[in-house]
Amino acid sequence: MLAILKLLQSLVKTLHSDGTPGQIAAGIALGAALGLTPIANAHNLIVLLLLAVLNVSFASGMLAFAIFVPVGFMFDPIFHRIGRMLLVETPSLRPMWTAMDNVPGLALTNFNNTVVLGSVVVWLVLFVPIYFAARVGVVKYRATIGQKVMNSKFYKALQASKLYNVYTLFRG
Amino acid sequence: VADAAPQAPVPKRQALFRWKGIIPMAIFAVVLLGGWKFFGARLIKSGITASGTAVVGSQVDLDGLSIHFFPPSFEMRGFAIADNEDLMRNRLAVGRALVAVELLPLFQKKVIVKSVTVADVQTGSARTVRAKFVPPDTTPGGLGFETRELVKRVKVPVMSLVPIDSLKAVVLNPQDLKAVQAAVALGVQADSAKALADKGYSQLNLQPALDSSSAVIGRLKDVNVRTLGVDGARKALADLRRTAAQVDSAKNRVDKLVTDTKRSMDSLQALVGAMDDARKDDYASARGLLKLPSFDAPDIGAALFGDATMARFHQAIHYAELARKYAPPGLLPKESPGPKRVRMAGSTVHFVKQESYPRFLARRVELNLVGNGPTGVDYAAAASDITSDPAIIGRPTLFVARRVGKGKEGDSLRISGSMDHTKDTPRDAVTAVMGGVPLPKFTLPMLPYTLDAGVGAAQMRFALEGDKLSGTWTVRSDAVVWRPDSARARSLNTMETLVARALTGINTLEITADIGGTLKAPTLGVRSNLDRVVAERIRAVAGEQIAAAQARLKAQVDRLVDEKSAPVKAKVAEVRAESDRKLAEAKAKLEAEKQKLEERLKALAGGVNLPRLPGRP
Q1: Given B21, B335, B348, which is nearest A52 (Cβ)?
Q2: Is the ipTM reported for this complex over the cut 0.95?
Q3: B370: closest CA among B93, B63, B59?
Q4: Are B312 and B471 in contact (CB under 8 A)?
Q5: pLDDT confidence bin for B23, thresholds 50/70/90
Q6: Of A49, A97, A107, which has the smallest distance from its Cβ to B25's Cβ?
């Protein structure tokens, strides 16, 4: 329950932040990698670094991470199939994978794992669509119901729930 | 310009980078390093125990692990492999091992062992905590699955010294006999072959060619080239040629059908042969139902020591299977299950090339093992080129172990072997020569006695090349002791008593067992000095009755099989004869027609030299 509340807080906070729609969308597109692909992999360190040093919304990246984790779990069998097709069933790509698997450093990326490769490929393919979809979504939200949400009791309740967060910190 | 309207403020362009973001990332990196310091070794330790347990099929423990970066090495403390058959004992325990590895290959996730320094290595040591039993992997393709399947495929004869008066007739179910099943299948095949032959014959459609030939011959009767004139003769010649071509075409169709029918009938004949072979299997199966004691020494040897022999070869085959799984031949990509995680593991594909590091390589490992317990002895062992990618290394893995130190003069043990997976067909071989060692105890399956072979000599040679098996196991002892097996104690019948009396008087043992064939169809032969004694006793006590029982059983099999197979054989012969007769008749008719056409041509020529008909020399 607390996790859902925090997610809602984060969503609303991100949508009402000072960031431009482009910054929020870029954060979401980058953060999607953290959720779609298995987290403990070298490419996610790079994504995290990009979220930190690029002028994009870090919070929206974290929000996307939370949103895309269940999506990643759900689509793992598809990622595995895509990865297997690229790694095993496409002989023309074999020299490239062989070279990668034997280059110091690159071998640590785990791109020779079907789920990792499949999910990274899917994320790269979806990066631009996620970016534009998120950007359009943020613009439309702010232009239509953004102000109403800000004035709603729900939003105020969410704001108030920050007090609850402070309470949980000291609860012991 | 002065009246110009005030311009809207230009939005400030956002910078692409925020360099301050490096600070939290640096903090994150420090946290990661700290986490590694505290949890890294623990994670690797649990990885080693989990994967080790999966590989060896028994519990693997590791008390402590330290990782050093400069120079790269790791130190294991309290490494132990439990014995899955005695959970309070370790198969191998290593007190401390320092493994130094090369740095550069680690960046390719490859481990090249530079040196291994071990201390306090023990075999057969007692455990303080009972190990968990690791159930064998029963999934097809899992480790050990093939070996267990192979053991099931080896037919070890069952033998029991049944009381003579219980050699009564067994009523066989015809449906259980392979020859009867083969006869039923052959009957269906014969019907199908007959239908096919009849259909082929009707499709020959010979009548039009024969009718056409008769018509032409009739029309040209009593005419010749002089009475017909040039045009008439030309037309008659053309008619004769066309008709002859029709007859030839029909003959070709008959020839083709003859070939097809012959093939079909040969295949039926082969099935008749297979049916006769199946009958031999049925004799053996039927004998098995009676559990009749055999007079044949090889059967007796296999019945006495077959299971014990297979237990020895089972281990060798299991290790060969293990080696092939983790060191497969060739340079093709190798797929293995991905790392265990909350998300789906997927599979990890390793791409190998000739000029690269293997995933794992230990160039040379030397161990001094201290044996435990009253029979414990010390061993010196060494292995070279232990690798996951033998095709890259290009040399076979070699290993040797020998007994050192304690023991009486003459006691010896030497195990040596190789695993050559450098070529497409892997070859695994091991030779073990032991003298003055405690030999296994054998439980006699048909008598409540245990044969304690005491101390003696044993030798084992085993090779698995591709899927071809070859191996020999010999055991020699001059100090055999026969012990009654109280757990299986019972009153013995006359035959059992006599055989037991003969056996327990023997105090030497010589067993020679051979394994051969392939993994899919293994063969086992066992001979021993006890075989002759048992055979003689059985023959003396119950030879006639057993022979009569076997004869009755054979007659019963013959009767049941003949009831089904004789009509089928007759049907096959009939189908063949009828088909041959019909085709021979058709061929003869066509030949006669062709002959008549030839004669008509001669008559037509009336002495003029006309061209010959097609298909004639």
Answers
A1: B21
A2: no
A3: B93
A4: no
A5: confident
A6: A49
* Burial (0-12, 13-18, 19+ Cβ within 10 Å), B486: exposed
B181-197 pLDDT tens trace: 889 888 898 899 889 88
**C-alpha–C-alpha distance, residues B310 and B298, integer Å:** 15
pLDDT at B233 over 90: no
For residue B344, give the chain A residue with the closest CA.
A76
CA–CA distances in Å: residue B97 to residues A133, B92, B103, B200, B360? 57, 13, 19, 79, 17
pLDDT of residue B168: 58
A147 class by beta-carbon count within 10 Å (0-12 exposed, 13-18 middle, 19+ buried): exposed
CB distance A98–B352 less than 8 Å?
yes
How many Å lie between the alpha carbon of A53 and the closest alpha carbon of chain B?
A: 5
> What local confidence, expressed as pLDDT, does residue B472 receive?
94
**pLDDT at A5 > cutoff 90:** no
Confidence of residue B141 (pLDDT cuts 50, 70, 90): low
Q: Which residue of A has its CA nearest to B15?
A: A55
Max intra-chain CA distance, chain B: 138
**DSSP for residue B107:** G
Q: Is the pLDDT of residue B398 over 90?
A: yes
User: Do the Cβ atoms of B353 and A98 come within 8 Å?
Assistant: yes
As to burial, measured by CB atoms within 10 angstroms (0-12 exposed, 13-18 middle, 19+ buried), residue B227 is: exposed
Do β-strands B509-517 and B455-465 pair in parallel, antiparallel, or remain unpaired?
A: unpaired
Kindly state the average pLDDT of the residues B477-499: 83
Q: What percent of chain A has pLDDT over 70?
A: 83
Angle at B490 between CA B494 and CA B158, to 5 degrees: 70
User: DSSP character for B174?
Assistant: G
Task: State the best of A101, A108, A122 to mutate against chain B, taking most chain B CBs within 10 Å.
Answer: A101
What SS3 state is found at B467? coil
Q: Which residues of A touch B354 (CB under 8 A)?
A: none
Question: With contact defined as beta carbons under 8 Å apart, do B349 and B332 qualify?
Answer: no
- Cβ contact B108–A83 (<8 Å): no
Residue A161, pLDDT score? 62
- The reply to whether A44 touches chain B by the CB within 8 Å rule is no
- Of A136-145, B344-353, B402-411, the one with minimum mean pLDDT is B402-411
Whether B341 sits inside 8 A of A102 (CB atoms) is no
